[in-house]
């Protein structure tokens, strides 16, 4: 009887777990709509911007892997030599920088995972409850800026779009899930742009998770990564082809959050034995180890020991991080950066096991493989323009200008950097 009950319990547990995951998957595919919102009459005739991000699309991928559609479209617009990500060059901080015009230390998402010392809470990009909690997000993302000025915005995925920030989310948005296939996402965007003009979004964000996954698993030089780049290229072609018959003044801005580089997989750096986890919390690792001391009196002793023994990585106090990182004590507006930071020298990474084939997160001023992509085309942009590399904080004022949105909050980006590419 006990065996039967045990088996029955296992079956029921499995059933409920399956049901729960299935319900979650179904929930994630539901469109969220804020009822009652309309474009103000003054916004209806404004242009449209689709801001597209292909995660991990390195600055040279389009030419290297012959992304013919992207190259052809942007040759009729603007191509940057590269776009320089903010430090650390990882996904969540840089996607949110693109949408706020602020360095990670200023908007608060200082890494993909980090500790908030004031509360002792940890944010992680894999924790849905944290990701959807607006308290973690500083700045005014573009969709909030638009909605504040009675311009409808929509998000087909983007960091922060699931959270209520300053009391607002995009009028239309989906929770991030791979359950919605790419052709369906394109159809959703087309449907948004086919709505009556008072309900039609003028700002749409559109996120693709490749070629980042391929780059991590196989490395930036692998045929699988080339295939992922070509897939992204095909998606952009299908998206533009679907929207073209609508005859709307749509401007496309194609970006990525960071690049990708091969690392030393055979000799990863182990966590230094001097770090006593009873005294210190390691909030992140990989291409930067972020260490918080539980007792601030323990900061200097550990720093001195680590500094005396540093090999294959640099040891910094938060107060003496290099200025170009914008990641020091004076930058850390929300006190979320560790007291001590260990920064590996490329191609080394911190890992307790054999690392993946591709990494990002390194200093983009030293490792150019970290540089991202910027391509743009549409009626707002000059044609056949090539520009030098620039920092990604400057995308925010560019998009705000195209949409005719004003902002008063101090940001790190400057319109004058990219204004010359506009007609």
TrEMBL record:
Keyword Signal: yes
GO molecular function: hydrolase activity
InterPro entries, A to Z: Alkaline_phosphatase_core_sf (IPR017850), Phosphodiest/P_Trfase (IPR002591)
Signal peptide boundaries: 1-25
Keywords: Signal
Superkingdom, natural source: Bacteria
Stated name of the protein: Alkaline phosphatase family protein
Organism: Pedobacter miscanthi
Lineage: Bacteria, Pseudomonadati, Bacteroidota, Sphingobacteriia, Sphingobacteriales
């Amino acid at each position: 009887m006990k065996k039967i009950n045990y088996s029955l319990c296992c079956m029921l547990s499995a059933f409920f777990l399956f049901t729960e995951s299935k319900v979650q998957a179904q929930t994630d595919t539901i469109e969220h709509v804020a009822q009652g919102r309309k474009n103000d009459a003054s916004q209806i005739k404004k242009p449209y911007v689709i801001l597209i991000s292909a995660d991990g699309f390195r600055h040279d991928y389009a030419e290297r892997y012959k992304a013919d559609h992207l190259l052809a479209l942007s040759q009729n617009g603007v191509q940057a030599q590269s776009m320089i990500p903010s430090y650390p060059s990882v996904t969540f901080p840089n996607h949110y920088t693109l949408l706020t015009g602020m360095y990670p230390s200023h908007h608060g998402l200082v890494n993909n995972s980090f500790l908030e010392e004031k509360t002792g809470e940890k944010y992680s990009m894999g924790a849905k409850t944290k990701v959807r909690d607006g308290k973690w997000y500083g700045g005014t993302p573009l969709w909030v800026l638009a909605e504040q000025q009675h311009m409808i915005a929509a998000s087909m995925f983007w960091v922060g779009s699931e959270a209520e920030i300053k009391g607002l989310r995009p009028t239309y948005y989906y929770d991030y899930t791979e359950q919605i296939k790419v052709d369906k996402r394109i159809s959703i965007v087309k449907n948004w742009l086919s709505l009556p003009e008072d309900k039609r979004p003028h700002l749409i964000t559109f996120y693709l998770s490749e070629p980042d996954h391929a780059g991590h698993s196989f490395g930036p030089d692998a045929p699988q990564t080339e295939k992922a780049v070509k897939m992204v290229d095909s998606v952009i072609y299908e998206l533009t082809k679907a929207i073209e018959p609508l005859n709307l003044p749509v401007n496309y801005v194609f970006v990525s959050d960071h690049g990708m580089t091969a690392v030393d997989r055979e000799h990863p750096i182990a966590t230094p034995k001097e770090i006593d986890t009873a005294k210190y919390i390691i909030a992140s690792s990989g291409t930067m180890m972020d260490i918080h001391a539980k007792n601030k009196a323990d900061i200097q002793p550990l720093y001195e020991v680590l500094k005396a023994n540093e090999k294959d990585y640099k040891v910094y106090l938060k107060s003496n991080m290099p200025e170009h990182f914008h990641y020091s004590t004076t930058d850390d507006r929300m006190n979320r950066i560790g007291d001590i930071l260990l920064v590996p020298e490329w191609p080394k990474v911190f890992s307790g096991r054999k690392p993946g084939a591709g990494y990002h997160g390194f200093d983009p001023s030293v490792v150019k493989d970290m540089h991202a992509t910027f391509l743009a085309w549409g009626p707002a942009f000059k044609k056949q323009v090539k520009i030098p590399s620039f920092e990604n904080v400057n995308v925010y004022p560019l998009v705000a200008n195209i949409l005719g949105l004003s902002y008063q909050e101090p940001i790190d980006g400057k319109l004058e950097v990219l204004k010359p590419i506009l007609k």
